[in-house]
Write a structure and sequence with these properties.
two-stranded antiparallel sheet; 5 strands; globular; alpha+beta; Alpha-Beta Plaits
Length: 103
């Protein structure tokens, strides 16, 4: 905080206003496990992803059981992230039998 000499304190933020990136809803998985799996796939593809609402699952009964956990990405990454989600839904990231035999 600084005082401009007029008795009014001003707060200087550590970032510029235009550096904030708008987050867009990408996907609503069924649970936190699926959210973390998708987050890992997106990160492997070079797409940062945030999970929100995962701790709200403890409130099921008071909250609806689905639609709580959400994945968001930067607006600029949304088209690429949507393509990854479509691939995941189509099974492109599934392990085949040869993958499990080599583990």
């Amino acid at each position: 905080m600084s005082n401009a000499g007029n008795g009014v304190a001003t707060l200087t933020l550590p970032f510029k206003r235009n550096e904030y990136k708008m987050q867009k809803l990408l996907y609503v998985p069924n649970n936190a496990l699926s959210a973390h799996l998708l987050q890992g796939i997106l990160q492997q593809e070079g797409i940062p992803c945030q999970i929100s609402g995962e701790y709200l699952q403890g409130g099921v009964g008071e909250l609806p059981p689905i639609g709580i956990v959400r994945l968001t990405v930067d607006e600029a990454d949304l088209p690429r992230a949507e393509a990854v989600i479509r691939g995941w839904e189509a099974g492109e990231y599934a392990l085949d039998d040869s993958d499990s035999e080599n583990s």
